Amino acid sequence: MHEIPYDYFRYTPYGLRYMFEKAGFKDISIEALSGFFVTSILKINYFSARFIKGPKPLRWLILYLLVPIWTICQFLAPYLDKFDKNWDAEAVGYIVLAWKR
């Protein structure tokens, strides 16, 4: 689960296409916003952020150590995504372009 309690829907490219077709849209194009590496790094960053606990000085120290790692990984991930041939399988989200006549 993500963004608890505000994650009400999670769509796949197949579900998006189905809903747009059902609503009467034509010429539907669906593009993934990211690939495996961007998605994985975001998940790892969110996961590791949950463990920043304890007294304020300790939390600041942990953040001081993790933020550079998070930053470097998030900078590199889009470049690594160029090697991912199946973006639809692991994407952060999708952009839909469709026309209704």
Give a brief outline of the structure:
With 101 residues, the protein is of the alpha+beta class. The chain is built from three helices and two strands, in the order αβααβ.
Task: Describe the fold and architecture.
- This protein is an alpha+beta fold.
- It folds into 2 domains: 1-34 and 87-101, no CATH class; 36-83.
- The protein has helices spanning 13-22, 36-49, 56-80; strands at residues 26-32, 94-99.
- It has a two-stranded antiparallel ribbon with strand order 1-2.
- Helix 2 packs antiparallel against helix 3.
- The protein is elongated, with a radius of gyration of 18 Å.
How would you write the strand order of the largest sheet? 1-2
Helix content: 40-55%
Taking the sheet with the most strands, its summary is: 2 strands, antiparallel
Alpha-beta classification: alpha+beta
Into how many domains do the coordinates divide? 2
Tell me the number of strands: 2
Q: Give the strand content.
A: 5-15%
How many H/I helices?
Answer: 3
Order of helices and strands: HEHHE
What's the overall geometry?
elongated
Radius of gyration: 18 Å
pLDDT averaged residue by residue: 89
User: Uncertain spans, ≥5 residues at pLDDT below 50?
Assistant: none
Terminal CA distance: 37 Å
